[in-house]
Design brief:
Order of helices and strands of chain A: HEEEHEHEHEHEHEHEHEEHEEHEEEEHEE
Largest sheet of chain A: 9 strands, mixed
CATH architecture of the largest domain in chain A: Alpha-Beta Barrel
CATH superfamily of the largest domain in chain A: Alanine racemase
Oligomer: homodimer
Strand content of chain A: 15-25%
CATH topology of the largest domain in chain A: TIM Barrel
Largest interface: A-B, 77 and 76 residues
Helix content of chain A: 25-40%
Chain lengths: 411, 411
């Protein structure tokens, strides 16, 4: 059996001071890696290139730089971050976000909020209304146990249900109203309907109004900074007016949350806006790289890609293409497809459930079965949701194993 | 809080004798359901409509009918089934397949094979070559512990690596050669290269040749039975010739495995073909329904859709559309999109990570937040891979909770 060092043609360590190279290379399964960790911290020297693949890795230098850049930008603009955990589903990363200065964490589903609060996060805003008796009860149980739980609502009927459940549980629920930016996905219409909902929440015995949210998801990936800015400011205008109406009538507007990685440096232009719900900025992905930024119209370089998938060449018997072990179940079907890190003239496709296909232009290239490649993910949120753990890496060395504790928590 | 019975407009019980209706309806989380089960069997009466959503359900009547139909068909045609567990990733379903008469189970990844063998399945054929030292060791450990493990190989170098690892482990590995049907994904070229690989496997000290496989994945979803039949028989012809060459030179052809749900009633026409690796037949999905069958050119009705996702309406404030809680993370991005069971004039989209959108033509329809819908899945394999468990249902009542023990085992 060949025990040669796997060729690492695609190794890139942009920004890293030194690349740690192992003296001997073997392979490690997820179980073997966990047995070498103590409280998540790896106790032995293992290169990421030794991991059995597909393996999800996050580069700590890039992750930390992204946290810092975001926090500096919003602080400069007089607002805060309340990052969305739907992206990473990982309590460790949520803790790093809180340490970087975030005012709280967002969750998309009640099961996600449960995991975050059980793992010690203290302030969690659930951005999706809970509409069934069962899920309303789950949310109220969270509020009873964790004072920092905040719930969104988007209809008078739902607000009454929340209030009744809170009264029955002997608590007061903290509630923000969810205002529709025009996408008609969730949220109440801005203006009078939203104002009346806020007044109702303010009045109901089991509820305390904490403000509002308006998430303009449809603008996050608009290409071109000026186009994106114009679109999202136009879409948020009715919510800004709603906030002014709430303020005039003496209602709480202490929270006016929204925005994301695509608009984090635009959202503060909305009067009264308090915090950005950005998620993808910690990882970045091929979808966000393509939208262009304020300084670079071609590539959105405000944040660094930190999340990659390691994959292994399974078959190299045909010129100009190889088959890898990372297909749809490792990469999702999101497009643009994953990008081979540090390479040009290559296209990767993950359209097959179990296998990826890499095609390359350069006929002088040769690959062997067993070679490893590194992929920048297509769309970070659903990719993370496929993995039980991610490997936290610095200078290509695995430093920790982070459980993706809310993976699959779509309920 | 409203505790009215959730409206179940879309309830369909095709073929079921009686629908069990609960007297009181509450909601159950995954944890609450597990606490009500003993050895997977549910100990209390719970309707599937009481489950917190998104929830993955498998209808036992449909599943059992599919197992029976497949087994009767292949038996009639003088071949067997060796069903692929990449579809269901669930030891319980693999056991039902073995009880229905299958000769073994297939696995796509070594981590999947590990789960199946650890859960008591005895004959597992790993259809993907293992190419790294670490994974070859994992495969050889499986073979050492479980006599029924069979490994595919598709290159002379890999066969030598396997043999060296088997010798080092003091075992003889059982190996089939993987022959490329022309897709150039995995597999060695048919004819002389394949024959020479088979001869090498037969000669190497650590290996025992058990035959061959040739999986023509690209033909499974060809629309129209005759078109599908013509294409797959043409693509398998070189493999059939390879088998004849192997037979003439005295090599083992005891296994000639391949095919799938789209070609299960065609594959026996290949001389020497022994078993179908069908996976999707147990569940069916929107992709397979669209290919048409031998008797029904419009709908592939050879098997019944048994796998569905229950989802809840979150927002119904806009005419002609509702937002649900089952988006990409619950349904994948596979198309055709999920089908609302038993309904026409409706389109469902799962393009948003957390939310689904249902659009309907009939303006007289009304929905309320909290209503539940049932979706036939788009593509069963990657959908199952999103869930930790599936609810086994008969007459709409949850009978058991099946762990999807190999979920996420893409390594």
């Amino acid at each position: 059996m060949s025990d040669a060092l796997p060729r690492r043609r695609f190794l890139q360590s942009a920004g890293a001071a030194a690349v740690w190279v192992p003296t001997t290379v073997k392979g490690y399964s997820a179980e073997e890696m966990r047995s070498r960790a103590l409280d998540d911290e790896l106790q032995v020297e293992v290169s990421k290139w030794e991991l059995d693949t597909p393996a999800l890795c996050v580069d700590l230098d890039a992750l930390e730089a992204n946290l810092r850049r975001m926090q500096e930008a919003v602080a400069r603009n007089g607002i805060a971050t309340r990052p969305h955990a739907k992206t990473h589903k990982c309590p460790q990363i949520a803790r790093l976000q809180m340490e970087s200065g975030s005012v709280g964490i967002c969750a998309a589903k009640v099961s996600e909020a449960e995991v975050l609060l059980e793992h010690g996060l203290q302030s969690v805003l659930m951005t999706t209304p809970n509409v069934t008796p069962s899920k309303i009860q789950r949310a109220m149980r969270l509020r009873a146990r964790h004072g920092g739980f905040i719930q969104a609502t988007d209809s008078p009927e739902n607000a009454r249900d929340l209030s009744a459940a809170a009264v029955a549980a002997g608590i007061t629920a903290e509630v923000v109203i969810d205002v529709d930016p025009g996408a008609h996905r969730t949220g109440i219409a801005p203006g009078r309907p939203a104002l009346e909902l806020a007044q109702l929440v303010d009045r109901l015995p089991g509820l305390r109004l904490a403000g509002m949210l308006c998430y303009d998801g449809g603008s996050q990936h608009v290409r071109g900074f000026q186009e994106r800015r114009a679109q999202t400011l136009a879409r948020l205008e009715p919510a800004v007016e709603t906030r002014a109406m709430m303020l005039r009538t003496g209602l709480s507007t202490e929270i006016f949350s929204g925005g994301g990685t695509g608009t984090y440096n635009i959202d503060h232009a909305n009067a009264g806006f308090t915090d950005v719900q950005a998620g993808s900025y910690v990882f970045m992905d091929a979808q966000y790289l393509a939208i262009g930024g304020a300084t670079d119209p071609e590539v959105y370089s405000d944040f660094e890609p930190s999340l990659t998938i390691l994959t292994t060449v399974l078959n190299s018997q045909h010129e100009g293409q190889v088959t890898t072990d990372a297909g749809t179940k490792a990469c999702t079907l999101n497009q643009p497809w994953p990008i081979v890190k540090g390479e040009a003239g290559m296209t990767y496709r993950a359209g097959s459930d179990e296998f990826g296909t890499l095609r390359y232009d350069d006929p002088s290239r040769t690959y062997r079965a067993g070679d490893k490649l590194e992929l920048i993910v297509s769309h970070c949120d659903p990719v993370v949701n496929l993995y039980d753990q991610m490997y936290a890496v610095r200078n290509d060395r695995v430093r920790a194993i982070w459980q993706i504790a809310a993976r699959g928590k779509s309920v």
